[in-house]
Amino acid sequence: MHEDRERCVRAVQAKDARFDGWFFVGVVTTGIYCRPSCPAVPPKPGNMRFYPSAAAAQQAGFRACKRCRPDTTPGSPEWNHRADVVARAMRLIADGVVDREGVPGLAARLGYSTRQIERQLNAELGAGPLALARAQRAQTARLLIETTALPMGDVAFAAGFASIRAFNETVREVFALTPTALRDRVAKGHPPAASGTLSLRLPFRAPLCPDNLFGHLTATAVPGVEEWRDGAFRRTMRLPHGHGIVALRPRPDHVACTLALSDLRDLAIAISRCRWMLDLDADPVAVDDQLRTDPVLAPLVDKAPGRRVPRTVDAPEFAVRAVLGQQVSTAAARTHAGRLVTAYGDPVQDPGGGLTHLFPTPAALAELDPEDLAFPKTRRATLTTLVKALASGEIDLGVGSDWEEARARLAALPGFGPWTIETIAMRALGDPDAFIPTDLGVRTAAASLGLPATPAALTHRAAQWRPWRAYAVQYLWATSDHPINLLPAP
Q: What b/e string do you get for 402-423 counting C-beta neighbours within 10 Å, with b at 16 or more?
């Protein structure tokens, strides 16, 4: 979009928050870059320069606006609905792959050479993977500087910087302030440095309907791993350097996030995974406008616009849970998952809460005895085959995976039909066009709305909902009074 100058100028002059994250505007007279909705007086069009990423604006010599904080905007929705190599790369960078494995590791995961990855990212985003990862480190550093009392040396290494010098130079260059001055600008009252607990706001593009989002996550919560407590959805997370417990509370203009991490180096990754789980980088206006073109869906969209697709923080975990949920009730699926967690999950401490374990890894589940599973023999085979394929790396369901290749590999496993594959594609892979016409809730809703009842006919009818059929499923599910559609009581 940044190449459509006229459209970008109109968005900046209207202070249109819908375009925050889509592009960034550099102001040549001040040397700062802003989000389109910056509350400052818009600059003259001739003084505006447009960039597809914060990293590109920083590479062009602009520093972040202190007023609108463009580094805290929602991510571009482009990386949510695309499955090409650039989108996959951006999802992996957000998940910290460059910091952990370098550019060669990123390229290896994508099956390209480092030169090809550099070229494609520079062509589309105006910055290479190192610059994009650096911009993310700067944002993480800012969060730690402003929300903790950690010594600056600890902040530097927790944010992913290799040295104190690189940390100081990056903060000064990006924010035009030293780390100490940046901390001094925030309000008094920092949490203790040793607590490991951070409170922050997760922005999103309005509108957002929290009912099905938090209702679904809570109704399907695995005992010991997830819970709804004191108005927040809470869960444990397995992270690269340790583990974490997150509490997420819906608010009118943001999602309040409280993170307790065993290692602060996981902060950026934990935030990225929470945003992914809540689908906060979606563009609800684009989704809803497309679905409103169908007169059957239009009333559902108008009643509660901004529905998101509830996802997961751990794709292999969700794949296992999808198999456990085959042809059983939500309550039965939770019971089966809870038993696996108790037997094979890693215990954690949650003072004042009810969380007890991390969900078991595929490697841990690969050691289970099928005879211990209290469900039919064929489903036992499905589960054991899946966890072995996940543990061996034969199947990749991570944020950088190829959606169609993942579907094909799942389809080759015994017991994997369209419902299971598309459910995993929708909630684990994040494909916004995943569709489950065989789902009972979808078929019941379709029949009540006068839509075709058979899967083939419904799939044909749903072609006009593309590429947002996963969101159409959320609106169809919302026609029932199932707990997945209801925001839990505080």
A: bbeebbebbeebebbebbbbbb
Bridge partners of residue 64, in order along the sequence: 33
Q: Residue 181 contacts by C-beta under 8 Å, 6 or more apart in sequence?
A: none
Eight-state DSSP code of residue 3: T
Catalytically active residues, by annotation: 34, 439
Measured CA to CA, the distance from residue 79 to residue 282 in angstroms comes to 9
Specify the residue for token string 């794949």.
319
Mean pLDDT of the chain: 93
Whole-angstrom CA distances from 390 to 87, 384, 395, 397, 487 are 23, 10, 5, 8, 33
CA distance linking residue 480 with residue 432, whole number of Å? 22
Asked if 271 and 202 count as a contact pair (C-beta separation under 8 A), the reply is: yes
From the DSSP assignment, how many helices (H) and strands (E) are in the chain? Answer: 23, 11
- Single out the residue of 275, 346, 323, 341 nearest to residue 419, CA to CA: 323
Phi/psi at 341 (nearest 5 deg)?
-65, -45
What is the pLDDT, as a whole number, of residue 3?
A: 84
Assign 337 to helix, strand or coil: helix
Provide the phi-psi class of 398: left if phi over 0, else alpha when psi is between -120 and 50, else beta. Answer: beta
Buried residues in 239-268 as b, exposed as e (16+ CB within 10 A)? bebebbbbbbbbeeeebebebbbeebbbbb
CB neighbours of 62 closer than 8 A, spacing ≥ 6?
Answer: 26, 27, 31, 32, 33, 49
Q: Which pLDDT band, with edges at 50, 70 and 90, does 193 fall under?
A: very low
Tokens matching residue 358: 């991390």
Beta bridge partners of 27: 32, 48
Q: Which residue has the tokens 């600890």?
A: 154
What is the reported pTM? 0.92
Cα 387 → chain centroid: 23
Q: Rounded to 5 degrees, what angle do the CA atoms 211, 90, 364 make?
A: 70
Distance CA 235, CA 217 (A): 10
Query: Quick one: average pLDDT of 39-50?
Result: 95
